[in-house]
Specification:
Helices cover 64% and strands 3% of the residues. With 132 residues, the protein is mainly α.
Length: 132
């Protein structure tokens, strides 16, 4: 199938598919006319990549996962290790975002939002600590 059909079946834009080929994540066959020729196995790999990327895996992590996906002798422990590492990274980011939200919420609650020039938000951004 051509790249348009593969894109439609995988849910990825053709530009993304070409990018994955450029960086070596995918390699489509070539028809006699030189055009890319995708198989259903290629579409399954593209779907795998799309889902992996949507879960936050980096291109390099996707490369590892795709290698494991293709390896029928893989150990699930290898896959689990990659997923656990990603989960820990996501938990760390959530904690950081929660702290940012709490700090900004505190600044907003302490700002009167009136016509006076004093503003706890500006003071907080300037590095002056507000008592919680």
């Amino acid at each position: 199938m051509n790249i348009g059909t593969a894109a439609e079946k995988s849910g990825l834009p053709p530009k993304t598919i070409r990018y994955y080929e450029d960086i070596g994540l995918m390699q489509a066959g070539r028809a006699s006319n030189g055009y890319r020729d995708y198989s259903m196995a290629d579409v399954h790999r593209l779907r795998f990549l799309q889902r992996s990327r949507s879960l936050g895996f980096s291109v390099e992590e996707c490369r590892q996962l795709l290698s494991l996906y293709s390896d029928k002798d893989r150990e699930s422990a290898d896959v689990k290790t990659i997923a656990k590492t990603k989960l820990a990274e996501i938990d760390r980011k959530i904690a950081e975002l929660t702290e940012l939200r709490d700090t900004l919420r505190h600044l907003v609650r302490n700002c009167h939002g009136d016509k006076r020039p004093d503003c706890p938000i500006i003071e907080g951004l300037a590095g002056k600590e507000l008592a919680r």
